[in-house]
Write a structure and sequence with these properties.
Number of domains: 2
Largest sheet: 6 strands, mixed
Low-confidence stretches: 235-242
Mean pLDDT: 81
Number of helices: 10
Radius of gyration: 29 Å
Strand content: 5-15%
Helix content: 40-55%
Shape: elongated
Distance between the termini: 60 Å
Number of strands: 6
Strand order of the largest sheet: 3-4-2-1-5-6
Structural class: alpha/beta
């Protein structure tokens, strides 16, 4: 049903854009009766060109809830190609006799605005509706590609009851700015104070490229807040920085050690050390420091 509604919307907007172009061109007055038939004749050519362009670029296949820059690019292609093709056809037919040339750019502008505006308005409505139902306020550490992807996924994921309330990052250029409407409040060292001030319910570490020392420091700060915290997968597990809220996991020992856990054959090890005096070396390394 929703698909047919989107099709109906896309097929109706050219009519409205055409009428608006004449209305705006004639100083906000209605189309004169003597030009009605001519305007409709020309419009039929513009509409057919739009229909073929719409089908060729697959504009109707997009999901409005996930409208992005790529969808806006596709809308521009559809409108520009359709307007150009119709203009060429009518120019070869009768040089567009009786059609004001200002109608062409006005029609393209209004049609682009209507198609893009409708999709953007729907996405904003959906996000506002979902945000009202979300209860868990999330504070995200990291305003890079991982944090950006995570904020975007939380905002559009209706199945998760999370709401991003802020980001932390040590990059001074990002502090005070916003990512998808979420403010970057300050450096990571201010985590305890900011988490308390914003009343965060969950902390997410979204710095997949962080080294072992950074992870340890961040974990220590998270523990001081007494707030549950999670982390994203390591950089090796993420492709092009695209992450989802479903990828969250608890901070593991491997994150703190900087390497994979070593599998131990306990039965064989027991046989080797039973009734023997054992000297442990390397106590100052990653294992010893954690012990």
């Amino acid at each position: 049903m929703r698909k047919y509604i989107t099709y109906l919307f896309d097929m109706t907007m050219p009519f409205i854009a055409w009428a608006m172009a004449f209305w705006f061109r004639d100083n906000l007055s209605f189309i004169q009766t003597k030009t009605d038939n001519l305007a409709l004749t020309y419009f039929s050519v513009f509409f057919m060109a739009y229909l073929f362009s719409w089908l060729y670029y697959g504009l109707g296949r997009g999901v409005w809830r996930y409208t992005s820059i790529e969808d806006f690019k596709k809308i521009l292609k559809v409108v520009l190609v359709a307007t150009f093709v119709a203009t060429v056809i009518l120019s070869l037919y009768n040089r567009m006799a009786g059609l004001p040339r200002s109608i062409l750019p006005l029609y393209a502008i209004f049609l682009t605005t209507l198609l893009a505006g409708g999709r953007l308005a729907w996405r904003m409505l959906v996000e506002m509706t979902f945000n009202r139902t979300k209860q868990n306020s999330v504070l995200i550490i990291g305003a890079g590609s991982g944090g950006e992807s995570l904020v975007r996924d939380i905002k559009r994921n209706a199945s998760q009851r999370y709401s991003p309330i802020g980001l932390l990052d040590d990059d001074k250029r990002k502090i005070g700015n916003e990512i998808h409407g979420v403010k970057v409040y300050g450096p990571v060292n201010n985590l305890v104070q900011i988490a308390k001030r914003l009343d965060a319910k969950l902390i997410i570490i979204a710095i997949p490229s962080a080294d072992v020392n950074q992870v340890r420091h961040i974990v220590e700060l998270c523990e001081e807040t007494h707030i549950p915290f999670r982390t994203l997968p390591s950089l090796a597990d993420i492709t092009h920085g695209r992450v989802r809220i479903d990828d969250l996991r608890e901070v593991s020992l491997e994150d703190l050690m900087g390497r994979d856990e070593v599998a131990i054959d306990e039965e064989r090890l027991t046989e080797q050390v039973t009734n023997k005096t054992v000297l442990v070396t390397g106590a100052g390394g990653s294992i010893g420091s954690e012990v």
